[in-house]
Amino acid sequence: RASKEVMQTLSASSKEASATILMVTHDPVAASYCDRVLFIKDGQLYNEMYCGDNRQAFFQKIIDMLALLGGGSHDLSTIRF
Q1: Measured CA distances, 29 to 33, 40, 56, 59 (Å)
Q2: pLDDT at 76
Q3: What is the reported pLDDT for 81?
Q4: Is the distance from CB of 6 to CB of 33 less than 8 angstroms?
Q5: What is the distance between the alpha carbons of residues 22 and 37, in angstroms, rounded to a whole number?
Q6: Mean pLDDT, consecutive 10-residue segments, the chain of 81 residues?
Q7: What pLDDT was estimated at residue 79?
């Protein structure tokens, strides 16, 4: 519950202040709070995706991409704009 509150607070603060927050994570749930996610594989940019209006659908797209990569959440890095 605490991590959800932190992610909601960071997301709201970023939007209110028009600020950029850079977050690196291996957690697809945390990544789903971001506006943009970059996937890095073998030290190279592999793919990127943008959230849009539906965070739950974005979470599923993140999970699908991780499955496509053939790895787990360790393949995920995120950027929030």
Answers
A1: 7, 17, 9, 7
A2: 54
A3: 42
A4: no
A5: 10
A6: 90 90 90 93 92 94 90 51 42
A7: 47
Q: Tokens representing 36?
A: 């943009």
Q: What is the 3-state secondary structure (H, E, C) of the chain?
A: CHHHHHHHHHHHHHHHHCCCECCCCCCHHHHCCCCEEEEEECCEEEEEEECCCCHHHHHHHHHHHHHHHCCCHHHEEEEEC
| pTM of the entire predicted model | 0.75
52-65 burial code (b ≥16 CB/10 A, e <16)? eeeeeebbebbeeb
Using alpha carbons, list the distances in angstroms from residue 35 to 2, 42, 71: 21, 23, 22
Tell me, what amino acid is at 57? Answer: A
